[in-house]
Amino acid sequence: MNLKISNTSNKPIYEQITTQIKNLIVSGRLKEGEALPSMRLLAKELRVSVITTKRAYEDLEREGFIQTLVGKGSFVAKTDAEKIKRQKLHEIDELIYKAVEIALSSGISYAEVSAMLDEMFKENTL
Amino acid sequence: MNLKISNTSNKPIYEQITTQIKNLIVSGRLKEGEALPSMRLLAKELRVSVITTKRAYEDLEREGFIQTLVGKGSFVAKTDAEKIKRQKLHEIDELIYKAVEIALSSGISYAEVSAMLDEMFKENTL
DNA sequence: ATATTGTATATAATATATATATACAATATT
DNA sequence: AATATTGTATATATATATTATATACAATAT
Lengths: 126, 126
Prior knowledge:
2 copies of one chain form a homodimer. By secondary structure, the first copy, chain A, is mainly alpha-helical. Chain A folds into 2 domains: about 15-75, Winged helix-like DNA-binding domain superfamily/Winged helix DNA-binding domain (Arc Repressor Mutant, subunit A, Orthogonal Bundle), CATH 1.10.10.10; about 80-125. Chain A is built from 5 helices and 2 strands, in the order H-H-H-E-E-H-H. Chain A has helices at about 15-25, 40-45, 50-60, 80-105, 110-125, and strands spanning about 65-70, 75. Chain A has a two-stranded antiparallel sheet with strand order 1-2. In chain A, helix 1 crosses helix 3. The longest helix of chain A has 25 residues, at about 80-105. The mean pLDDT of chain A is about 90. Chains A and B meet through helix 1, helix 4 and helix 5 of A and helix 4 and helix 5 of B. The structure holds a DNA duplex.
């Protein structure tokens, strides 16, 4: 599966896993119905406990990215990535709307908010 | 001062204090320059430690609602535009942080989020 | 001088987050 | 039926954050 886990990252392992698998699905590199490595295999590969991979897979299932079946394994769900992305975009839209509302109602400029966004992205992609 | 503290509330005591005092100030029942009860008096009245009232007063001061002076006491601050702006910036920061988190965890690019922000500002400033 | 005000330090109790080991249960394979 | 594979449940460990406290200290007012 070739996921990269950093122990020095401030992000928890299960989150590093979900983030990367989400990206694989959204980008189409993992396709509908396709099998994910079993929790145990992935755990072994990443030198991590099964509980951690389970936690990651549970999160992915709750968010509709995959489906898990006892004895069979985990598979990319048929819910299309486009729908999920649209949903996420909507969540972001609402947050940004609130931010802009506050900005406009208190004399904070576009430049200031835009700079904050830039900074935030730089910080978090490291 | 007549604040109501609930021990069964899921909200911490210091937060119950700040919320109620903020409301008193915003509603004008506590006016600029007016003295708040000393941390010790309030602590005694609420049967709570001084550290807890201090925590509440510190939060209120950081948010620009009151001003505290050693030996004198705590007073309702004059509404300070700079402080309010800083507070608003913080609120915006938190919203944008959430937005960026969602974006990064679902393969949404900086360009997309940035475009949304641009759009939002254009729409709302027209 | 003393009482009042806020502050600093060290500490404790609790809750939450993260990760694990191990034993259990369901399904597939032989 | 036996065995290997898959996921699941329970109990636990560790670290960190949150909430609250006691007590000793410092600044100001009277």
